[in-house]
């Protein structure tokens, strides 16, 4: 064989990606066998029945078939503001959706993104420092590729974390430097803990170069406070770290005490020297929020305080991939400049987006409450993002049974859950967790009307599971 | 044109390198960029010290690159040019080699341009780096304000394989289906039947039924939607007459991510080599550099219509092995980019045999499979060839790349494509799947379009006639344009141009007079870049110097697409002819 397993790049073999791992594959098998599976493993709202927002789909459909714009009957199918917007976006391209754009994305869309950031933060944003990407993941990969030179380059990553970071860091041959979020403080980020992580990494000869924050958190759902963000930025300033701000869930906020605040705004509020020196890259996407347009693969990143020559290098590498897909660029343009009050489509757009967000907020509550009513399960409230991350306190009997089955305990639990209920989750070990502590991640995305039933079936499974393994061995760890 | 003997090439090389040394010394004195460039390659791979040094002032960060001195390498910023991934830098080091060999580049940036910016990718998008494209855009701006500023009215971009940006219309049926899938509510409207063909509506339904929950806004399986892969596999089967398995298909955002994925798997260090054609499409050199591997070149034979000779492959393979390089794969671009040749069936058999014997993965870039313009040549996929030789899954490891950006469809902006992966063990396949899954999935409209190009309307379908008319119209026009341009080029003094049997490019060889080469040296420009710049300034025609694709040292080429609309071709021929004549008059020896 020209390419056998032994000859593969070791970094590829090391890489792990839990969201599409063993559980997902088993769930797909069961689905093929005809079992009803509730996929809560990926933040993929449309797959669970969320309807796309109408206005952006109308605009993109018109851009896909521009000949409709010349048809006198186009008005029978499309509102005038969608038609106008389609013409606007087509005028920003060099040949419609079918031509490569600038490798950084269409200049006109990048300008709209910059205007959005400016409105959101109250500080200027430069379209030249905004790159559109095929989803936020591509942007994260580009930036990490730029930062990581070898195994002695470390990236601070929250634990639990979204496995994109661990997977990409190992593919690129760098070192992941974990910092633990404090579950008892609602997944708060403790700067002392950060310092320890950095000190320890440095003592092992690792040069820590960047820090990742996910705000709102994935899988943990917490929203960082302004004070916390300040501490983080100060820390990055002192330790000379690039801050990678994963802010893809910025629209997904389910409480009123802590609205989303961007790292860029906090940084600018802090003033000199921080605002001029801390290097920040912020990521956003069309896959999350109330848009949930995962299948489009649209995203952007904005760079702050990155030297022009580095920006050029990033541009160079972006251009090897030609250009991000143009229809997703248009989705991004629409997301950052949605219909305004007074527009024909405004009412419908506002109604649809509000409906989705309010339902998500209710689902977050149903889910947290549901988990907290289960035996040996404790769960922080989902303040934001799309996930619930309950801790499952497994009795020793379950740990032993898992060991016998050759499985990690939370994988064992999640597989049993899947077989019994059809609920497909991701074991906490895929995101990292403190040793001896077990979790699972579910999304809060199943349809609202199905939620009570799902939580009932979860509770029934869990409580029986706990009873079984506690009884067999006579005592509980708790 | 005769094939150069090794001896002659060696002499040329020596000559060029000698010239190069002088020039590089000169340019280094003049340009700090080169200092930095040299430093990059000397820097320790890693500097822990940078963590403890003090912050530089912010004004330093903002200073323009031309003011930066070599001492910037000690900057303590987390991300500076000197502390980014050296594989990025290696892109430059590779370029540095080019500088050594070619000797006559003035700016580092120009060199980057020819390696990267010169690719079809980058043209108008890669303005920052591409000096020629920069000039083109400047001229275009000037023409807007002053129509009489130059002896031409418009800039004609013959540098980029981006057909729809030059006015090629998309295939109506494909776009109808995409529009319906983008806004599925249309399918419930009666007015839709007045605006869309009936088979596009049927096809949209069929596709939606293959997507779980009809959700075109959802992430799909990381290999792509299963039903769409079924359609692609059926299309491959119809094309080749041999079975194709939908589980072998990995759908990607254009063909390039597939190439990157394979490089990621194959390359562990600079000890891993990939055999690549010269001239080549720069995606390969760039991707190999980014993944830290070694490009092992093999030269296509211009004299035999850019033929691929097995003896050359063997020679290069042995030479690489003698240097301790493990050659892992052979990349073949068929039809060729930038060279436009279509491989003969016999030649393809030899290539398959070679890969089997030497244990190489065959990376078959087949993105131009629909672009064949001559009656005596036909596209055969490497998979068909291998199967027809009786080789199955266990005999050859083969990856075939296909894209929706080329062909008659030319849907570059959609970023759709796939790779068909055969002859790998299941544990390797799992690893490919894992790498694919980190990026979740490729974009859905690109996936839909990839399935459409592999299963277009059939006779009897409502859209069939218009589809065929559009397709034939585009392909026959491309064939005419290729022929006209080729004939025109071959009439020019000192220019020989192989025919474009396929793909979208002509790659003529220019036998530049010594005086022109000397003038290029005075202008500190590669001779082919010198010619291309002159061409642009005189005619508004933008082409890419051959050095961007690499070429036999001492030979000079440029790449010109056949994509400007047909009505523009006569003017292009006239301008080109006129320019070349005056260029020769100026420099003839």
UniProtKB/TrEMBL annotation, chain A:
Keywords: Aminotransferase, Peroxisome, Pyridoxal phosphate, Transferase. It catalyses: glycine + 2-oxoglutarate = glyoxylate + L-glutamate; glyoxylate + L-alanine = glycine + pyruvate. One of its GO terms (biological process) is photorespiration. Residues 81-456 form the Aminotransferase class I/classII large domain. Pfam families: Aminotran_1_2. Its cofactor is pyridoxal 5'-phosphate. Pathway: Photosynthesis; C4 acid pathway; Amino-acid degradation; L-alanine degradation via transaminase pathway; pyruvate from L-alanine: step 1/1. One of its GO terms (cellular component) is peroxisome. InterPro entries: ALAT1/2-like (IPR045088), Aminotransferase_I/II_large (IPR004839), PyrdxlP-dep_Trfase (IPR015424), PyrdxlP-dep_Trfase_major (IPR015421), PyrdxlP-dep_Trfase_small (IPR015422). The keyword Flavoprotein does not apply. It is found in: Peroxisome. One of its GO terms (molecular function) is L-alanine:2-oxoglutarate aminotransferase activity. Gene3D superfamilies: 1.10.287.1970, Aspartate Aminotransferase, domain 1, Type I PLP-dependent aspartate aminotransferase-like (Major domain). Homodimer. PANTHER family: ALANINE AMINOTRANSFERASE, GLUTAMATE--GLYOXYLATE AMINOTRANSFERASE 1. Belongs to the class-I pyridoxal-phosphate-dependent aminotransferase family. Alanine aminotransferase subfamily. This is Aminotransferase class I/classII large domain-containing protein.
TrEMBL record, chain B:
Its EC number is 2.6.1.2. InterPro entries: ALAT1/2-like, Aminotransferase_I/II_large, PyrdxlP-dep_Trfase, PyrdxlP-dep_Trfase_major, PyrdxlP-dep_Trfase_small. One of its GO terms (molecular function) is L-alanine:2-oxoglutarate aminotransferase activity. Keywords: Aminotransferase, Coiled coil, Membrane, Pyridoxal phosphate, Transferase, Transmembrane, Transmembrane helix. It holds the Pfam family Aminotran_1_2. Residues 468-495 form a coiled coil. The chain crosses the membrane at residues 103-122. Residues 213-569 form the Aminotransferase class I/classII large domain. Gene3D superfamilies: 1.10.287.1970, Aspartate Aminotransferase, domain 1, Type I PLP-dependent aspartate aminotransferase-like (Major domain). Signal peptide: none annotated. Pathway: Amino-acid degradation; L-alanine degradation via transaminase pathway; pyruvate from L-alanine: step 1/1; Photosynthesis; C4 acid pathway. The keyword Glycoprotein does not apply. Its cofactor is pyridoxal 5'-phosphate. PANTHER family: ALANINE AMINOTRANSFERASE, ALANINE TRANSAMINASE. Belongs to the class-I pyridoxal-phosphate-dependent aminotransferase family. Alanine aminotransferase subfamily. Homodimer. This is alanine transaminase. The lineage of its organism: Eukaryota, Viridiplantae, Streptophyta, Embryophyta, Tracheophyta.
